[in-house]
Amino acid sequence: xxxxxxxxxxxxxxxxxxxxxxxxxxxxxxxxxxxxxxxxxxxxxxxxxxxxxxxxxxxxxxxxxxxxxxxxxxxxxxxxxxxxxxxxxxxxxxxxxxxxxxxxxxxxxxxxxxxxxxxxxxxxxxxxxxxxxxxxxxxxxxxxxxxxxxxxxxxxxxxxxxxxxxxxxxxxxxxxxxxxxxxxxxxxxxxxxxxxxxxxxxxxxxxxxxxxxxxxxxxxxxxxxxxxxxxxxxxxxxxxxxxxxxxxxxxxxxxxxxxxxxxxxxxxxxxxxxxxxxxxxxxxxxxxxxxxxxxxxxxxxxxxxxxxxxxxxxxxxxxxxxxxxxxxxxxxxxxxxxxxxxxxxxxxxxxxxxxxxxxxxxxxxxxxxxxxxxxxxxxxxxxxxxxxxxxxxxxxxxxxxxxxxxxxxxxxxxxxxxxxxxxxxxxxxxxxxxxxxxxxxxxxxxxxxxxxxxxxxxxxxxxxxxxxxxxxxxxxxxxxxxxxxxxxxxxxxxxxxxxxxxxxxxxxxxxxxxxxxxxxxxxx
Length: 524
Hints:
Helix content: 55-70%
InterPro entries: MetI-like_sf (IPR035906), NCS2 (IPR006043)
Membrane topology: Multi-pass membrane protein
Distance between the termini: 56 Å
Strand content: under 5%
Keywords: Membrane, Transmembrane, Transmembrane helix
Protein name: Nucleobase-ascorbate transporter 2
Subcellular location: Membrane
Structural class: mainly alpha
């Protein structure tokens, strides 16, 4: 038997993830790119429908209001995606609705000045205007931190070790939107999960005209199969005598989106009326803007890895956050009912398809804008049951989390210090938000419950976000615990060359602005 050599087990660290058919600046054929862009659009529908479906009824809105909010969220998401891929980080990231804003939005909905309004539609409009005002003010946080390069300066304290729990919990932190939702309708959720894994992994080598058709389009193909299956179950009366909550999650005709959607409707700024401004609402929303900023930072790091690009330099990261602030401003002006962030599920889809092309994401932004205007057609796709999306999330969120763990290859994991920091930050990143979630569910208010509503919103929002808690713990420990002689163990020698735009020659290829705009905005 051949003698075992330790070096045979070595897998050298790689700046760029290998095995991708198309990276950030290479493009598939136009036909394939359009099909892949449509697939990203379908995936983005999950969050675009889930958030308004939860919030609009609480605000007093009806099905017609919900459809308009979904259309607006998709329309603005398409614009923000184009802005981000053209002028922001230039990474292939879809910008969609964010759950980070739910806590301050719920606080606004329960404001006594709004709850006393008796007419539901009037209450919906007044609540929407209050949310808009808070979003407009909170956008200043990201705009200032981004364009002033302050966030880039802060990112210099982030090491590969410190980023591991942040990026990992961008995926793992969304576990409650995975199988807990699949379990609400196992008849469609479990088959969808099995079929998606089978198509994308076990049957990925099946080719048609030299294209791995099942690997590329596993998502849309499995959705079509399970959607037809769910329609057959609905039409055959399988859920006729089931509880109402089961019917909502299983039937394909319970969303009321198609019947309520107009044929053509173009969202426009201030369509709900003039925004109203309240200092307390704005402070709470600023906390959500900070959380969105941190979660997006993790999303950008993961997207760079899954687009086979180098990590975004501090200057590029700040530029992206600045444009994300502009996107948050647009959310407030148009009235999307929530803020925006990087769509984690779409980042995961880059890895499943092995296509990290920027053009594909820009095409998906075009679909988001197009189908948000053609209401009936967009509502048809948006009526896909939530459990189908949840089954896909189980795979895509897990893949993004694994990308975060892959940063450990640049660190010394035989160091007790590193094991301590990684373990504690990962555990607290999951445990602290879970405590806040359970406390809120049982007490109907967050652990922070003082007479200062803005303070409550700030604390409850910050500590309900797994990536935010992980960032706080990891960065503090990493920069205070035996940090003087541990640069190599932390992975800093590898990381340092990607801090500046000119630190690595590949940065120019991946992150240079289009239309020769770098002449007017030279990178730092």
